[in-house]
Amino acid sequence: MAILDEGRADLGAAPPSEEHLRRALAGDEAAFVVLYRGVHPGLVRYLRVLVGQAADDVAAEAWAQACRDLGRFSGDLPSFRAWIARIGRNRAIDHLRAERRRPVLPLPLGDLPEPGLADAAETTVVEADATREALALIRTLPPDQAEAVLLRAVLGLDAAAAGRVLGKRPGAVRTAAYRGLRALAERLETTGAGPSGRAPAADAEPAPVTAGSRRRDTRRLRSAEGVS
């Protein structure tokens, strides 16, 4: 766990690469720290929607398992992200089963945590507020849509990798993500966001959830006529 504690510092380092992954698989702890720095913030956001305030604890369990099982992993960097997401999702399911008599309720917007240290160093307060708002809105989506949006737009997985995490076909993930983003756009429009624009194709890669993209997508997704 010392590796994970070290990874919380100096989050402004370069993003992880295939070389970092190769070195981490060969036992380089410093390279593993870089992987952790690059993947952890998105993993926590994903888990935040699944298990609420327990996200940090569940993420810690996921990384602990990843440390134990790293020698069993083989694949490229996108596959590693999907592998970590799958571990996190499994740990989240275990947590929810254990807490079945105490279901996680949607958190008030004010109770959502600040973004990770990396984001705090790179974004303004306004963007941080937008991130919290986006997570709060995503939590109102049906579970399949919320997970698809998070895996694709927050963790950056393609449809095939997200499908492996969820046990679904890529087309089903694309459809769920598209519907989720369109639903979010409709809800955001009620707050007076964004100019109109062209709707994305149903199989298009969703853009990362940011303050700017949140506003740009509002009108164009609202007018979409693709997958329904």
Secondary structure: elements and pairs:
Elements: H1 2-6, H2 18-25, H3 29-51, H4 55-69, H5 77-98, H6 117-122, H7 125-138, H8 143-154, H9 159-166, H10 170-189, H11 211-222
Major sheet description = none
Oligomer: single chain
What count of structural domains?
A: 2
How many distinct beta strands? 0
> From the alpha-carbon coordinates, what is the Rg to the nearest angstrom?
17 Å
The succession of helices and strands, N to C, reads HHHHHHHHHHH
What's the overall geometry?
globular
Strand content: under 5%
Low-confidence stretches: 1-12, 103-128, 194-203, 207-228
Look at the structure and give the CATH class of the largest domain.
Mainly Alpha
Give me the secondary-structure category.
mainly alpha
Number of helices: 11
Helix content: 55-70%
Question: Which fold does the CATH topology of the largest domain refer to?
Answer: Arc Repressor Mutant, subunit A
Q: Per CATH, which architecture of the largest domain?
A: Orthogonal Bundle
Mean pLDDT across every amino acid position: 74
**Relevant CATH superfamily of the largest domain:** Winged helix-like DNA-binding domain superfamily/Winged helix DNA-binding domain
Distance between the termini: 45 Å
